[in-house]
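When time allows, look over one protein, given below as sequence and tokens. The question is which stretches look regular and which look disordered:
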Amino acid sequence: MTKKLFKRTVFPLILTAYAFLCQGGAYAIARMIAGGWEKTDITTAFDRLIPFVPWTVAIYFGCYLFWIANYFICARDESDARARFFAADTIAKGICFVIFLLFPTTNVRPDVAGDGVWNALMRLLYSIDSPDNLFPSMHCLMGWFCWVGVRRRSDIPMWYKWFSLLGALAVCVSTLTTYQHVIADVIGGVLLSEICYLFAGANGIRRAAARGIEWLYRNIAKILHISAADLDASIS
């Protein structure tokens, strides 16, 4: 494997996979611990005014492609912005895990009847995703990070920045119109992403994250038999 392939493709994919592992781990471990605990329904009267729109499940499922694309873009950035982005993402998911345990929430989902692909997909979603680990919404958290990670990048075209913003907003809306989340979950996810990104901008946090990424980079390179002489002096 060449250094360029590893640096520009393989390692960014590993960082992207790491972000998804953090998400899945937070969900799964919290569910194992608190699955049987009493949960609070924070649905409000405003939430009940939101229509149920089955076709938006396409956005809800499709957002995984959006996440992969933008996290990969952020993982290819070799500036301090990459360290800040993944530090913020990791911290945010750790906080989500703690909140899932301290304040477990749930909601009441509608009975989905009728034929059609969208209703079938809604029933599939409800069958594989139990109504827990809702506040804050990790869907909204990661969707918003997709916007945060590119909005100030000078090398990203303006059209893609707008696409990312609209994509993040669409994800937030889809969590409501599929009745997967309520308004408070959405606000919590968006605010947490912004707060953690601001926090990760501190020099100490960003540098620690950069050192961690470089350590991972070099050790994975060794496993793949890429010699130290072929690596740059620094990737941060």
